[in-house]
Amino acid sequence: MNAPRFTHRLATEADVRAIEDLMKAAIAENMKDFLTGEEISATQESMGLDTTLISDRTYFVVETVQDGTALIVGCGGWSRRRTLYGGDQTAGRDDSYADPATDAARIRAMYTRPGWIRQGVGSLLLRLGENAARAAGYKAIELGATLSGEPLYRARGYRETARQTLTGANGSPSVVIVMHKPLTPAERG
Fold first, then answer.
1. Phi, psi for residue 178 in degrees, rounded to 5
2. Nearest-angstrom CA–CA distance, 151 and 145
3. Which of 53, 60, 136, 175 is 20 to 30 A from 81 (CA-CA)?
C-alpha cells in the first residue's frame, strides 16, 4: 500500500469551520491514551483555534485527497507573537510581537485528524513552522505541549524547560509542557 500523499498551504478564513471540527475530533480522540475524560475536558479549556495565526499567515493546513475530495488531515503553525498556547477564548494571551534577536518564535495549535496520526503530518507541520520562523530571523522556537504531543516534540529535538499544571473548571489537571528547540541552519532532506 502506498503512503498517503500530503500537500500543504496557508489556512484561510474559509477553513475556520473545518479546522475547528478537526481540533474537536483530535482533542476528543487522540488524547484518550494519555488522559482521562475529565482531564481531556480540563485541557480543552486552554486549547482551540487562535484566528490571529490565520490573519498573520503563519498557520498551515495539511491535506490529502480521499475519495476524490481534499481532506484536511492536520493543522498547525508558528507565531511571532508571545502567546505560547491557547485559542481565541484563552485567558492571559499576549499578542505582542517577540523579538527574533532575543525571543523564541512559537509553534502553535498543532492537531492531527484521528486516524492520521503517526503518518508524518505532525512532523511536516513542525518542519513548515520551524523553517518559516528560521526565515523570519528567529534562532529558537518554543511550544506548549500536551502530554499526547510531547513524544512527537521530543523526537523532533524539543527539550522540556518547564511544566505547568492548570486546573480545569471541573477540578481536573491540565498539564502544559513548555518545550524549546534551537533553530540551527535549515535541515536537509
1. -80, 125
2. 9
3. 175
Indicate the domain borders of the chain.
7-182
- Alpha helices for 94-146 (secondary structure H): 121-135
CA dihedral 148, 165, 141, 128 (to 10 degrees): 30
Angle between helices 37-44 and 16-30 (to 10 degrees): 150
Neighbouring residues of 46: CB distance < 8 A, sequence distance ≥ 6: 85, 86, 90, 166, 174, 176
Express each pLDDT in 93-119 by its tens digit. 888 999 999 999 999 999 999 999 999
Q: pLDDT tens for residues 33-71?
A: 887 788 888 777 778 789 999 999 999 999 999 888 999
> 7-182 — its CATH code?
3.40.630.30
Q: Are strands 140-145 and 105-112 parallel, antiparallel or unpaired?
A: parallel
Q: Half-sphere exposure (CA, 13 Å, Cβ side) for 153?
A: 28
